[in-house]
Amino acid sequence: MTETTSTRIAADLRARIAAGEFGPGDRVPSTRELTRQWGVAMATATRALSLLQDEGVLRSVRGIGTVVAARPGSARPARRRAASSPARDDVVRAAITIADAEGLATLSMRRVAAELAIPTMSLYQHVSGKDDLVTLMIDRAFGEEPLPAHAPSDWRAALEIAARLEWTVFRRHPWLAPAMSLTRPQLVPSALRYTEWVLAALDGRGLDTAAAFDVHIMLFSYVRGMAVNLESEAQAEAESGLTAEEWMDAHADALTSLTAGGTFPHFQRIPELDFDLDLDALFELGLRCLLDGLRGVLP
Length: 299
What we know:
By secondary structure, the protein is an all-alpha fold. The chain is built from 14 helices and 2 strands. It has 3 domains: 2-68, Orthogonal Bundle (Arc Repressor Mutant, subunit A), CATH 1.10.10.10; 88-143, Homeodomain-like (Arc Repressor Mutant, subunit A); 155-294, Tetracycline Repressor, domain 2. InterPro entries: Bact_HTH_transcr_reg, Homeodomain-like_sf, HTH_TetR, Repressor_TetR_C, Tet_transcr_reg_TetR-rel_C_sf, Tscrpt_reg_HTH_GntR, WH-like_DNA-bd_sf, WH_DNA-bd_sf.
């Protein structure tokens, strides 16, 4: 019965695509939407989308979901015209575009060269290798969100500005948090401006320079630690075709079974709340708790 229903859903989507309701690159109904429209289980809806992916009708796109694949013979987006001598900024922008869309793991010198339609060896006029390129990408990413010209006099307000701008940058570029190192940091001017901002906000607050720097590291580590989840979630969604919420729905029965019997009475209440994991809300909660805690050591 499940297989028959999945096939019927797949046939309906196939017909709607053929009729032009969804064109190449358009997102099709998610598994959650299909379960509501057809009154079926999540597994059935997932199977329907998988059938069309196996046929090449649909494909998963990182950060977007399941979309209609390009039809055979359809026009593909034009590749960027080759530059006789691309500037280093062109190379960095191309690398960021690739990492934003496909993840840092797919980034290579050959891939960037293909994006620019130039020989791979031409890139080495601008960067010494991938590590050097990633450092330049980090610098450019943080430079997209400059700090205000003037900092507020209140240390807490200043630290909130820095943390929220960092979160904005990490949100925009999911690859960025995993690319950065805490123990062997990439020393880039745009990120160091954030360090200087925090140290200046804490200056004269009763902390020596080392203690103030520890506060900066703690704050940055919190923001980066939350942001590390962004790329892995984007990758999981692209590979499975399921959002985090849809994935939880698909595993609801297993979660209910795990908590049955009263072994975990408090955790058992969570599924009953229809809880949604909101990273932005968690970020705000954690930031508030962290800054509240600093009030114990800062005037």
